[in-house]
Design goal:
Number of domains: 2
Helix content: 25-40%
Number of helices: 11
Strand order of the largest sheet: 7-6-5-8-9
CATH class of the largest domain: Alpha Beta
Strand content: 5-15%
CATH topology of the largest domain: Rossmann fold
Length: 318
């Protein structure tokens, strides 16, 4: 792997499969009474969050601690950042603290790239979500979850699997990272949304595009619903919430059209009743809670491979 993880495009197929194999070994720790490994003892991981995100921050914190790393949580609110300190000054402070890895979430697209390539820090930088750009570890945990349920062969290959990603693609860093990574892993991705919720340039992504949810989901092996990100919207992207839900929400009627093996996913947080109904979110084919558990294992794998070494963390090769 490269020194940083900034984009799903940074990962070759071999890199991605190494992360998924390592995560599979580390996932077994979740079922043990003692969940810690000494792999990163003496290393320091800083969670640098300029945006609120309880789920992702706690997931990275749990991942680092289970590898025995020291963790520093650095939230923008209540810190010097809220007083006007620049990203550069913050980076220099982290460097002075001896951070080995910096996990960055930022509202501005490209901020983790700036940090990684500025020369301000020697640590590895992990993008935990930047603006509407990317969220590569979410894509990895989604691919890992899919491989556990849909993978074929000893490596859990996703070759030829059909994945529908539905909803607010325009504002979704998850959609972009998943489109890139799943294509790398051989899956076929279709994005489904109203025309107003596709970004400019989506035609260049390695995906199919559809406006018709009912035509796409019966053929899908995995259906991933995206939250409508109202906090990023300044205009009317669809007539009403009810109209959006009627055309692009996953309810019991639509779930009945899915294949028997098809799984339902959501990166969270969910808006129940908007993009997904409660009965679908809680159904047996829903793997939404499992995605959270898998997220810790995948982030452990990423931190281990960036800071520890290129071999799987537990045991031999396979």
């Amino acid at each position: 792997m490269k020194r940083h993880l900034l984009s799903a495009a940074d990962l070759s197929r071999d890199d991605a499969e190494l992360v998924l194999r390592t995560a599979a070994e580390l996932r077994e720790l979740a079922d043990r009474p003692i969940k810690k490994l000494p792999a990163l003892r003496g290393r320091t991981v800083v969670n640098l969050f300029f945006e609120d995100s309880t789920r992702t921050r706690i997931s990275f914190e749990a991942a680092a601690k289970r590898l025995s790393a020291d963790v520093i949580n650095f939230a923008a609110k209540g810190s010097s950042l809220s007083k006007g300190e620049s990203l550069k000054d913050t980076a220099l402070t982290l460097e002075a603290m001896g951070a080995d890895a910096v996990v960055v979430r930022h509202g501005a697209s490209g901020a983790p790239h700036r940090l990684a390539h500025s020369g301000w820090v020697r640590s590895s930088v992990v993008n935990a979500g930047d603006g509407t750009h990317e969220h590569p570890t979410q894509a990895l945990l989604d691919a890992f979850t899919m491989s556990r349920h849909l993978g074929t062969g000893p490596k859990g290959s996703l070759d030829g699997r059909r994945v529908a990603i539905v909803g607010d693609v325009l504002h979704s860093r998850v959609a972009r990272s998943n489109a890139l990574l799943l294509n790398t892993l051989g899956a076929e991705v279709t994005l489904v949304a109203p025309p107003t919720l596709f970004p400019v340039g989506v035609e260049s992504w390695p995906v199919e595009i559809s406006y018709d949810l009912d035509a796409v989901i019966p053929k899908a092996d995995a259906v991933m619903m995206l939250r409508v990100q109202r906090e990023r919207m300044s205009g009317g992207f669809f007539p009403t919430a009810r109209e959006y839900s009627r055309r692009y929400g996953l309810d019991g009627r639509r779930m009945a059209t899915l294949q028997d093996h098809t799984i339902v996913m959501h990166p969270g947080p969910m808006v129940r009743g908007m993009e997904i109904t409660a009965d679908v979110a809680d159904a047996d084919r829903s793997v939404i809670v499992e995605q959270v558990t898998n997220g810790v294992a995948v982030r452990m794998a990423v931190l281990y491979l960036l800071l520890g070494g290129s071999e799987p963390a537990v045991g031999g090769e396979e």
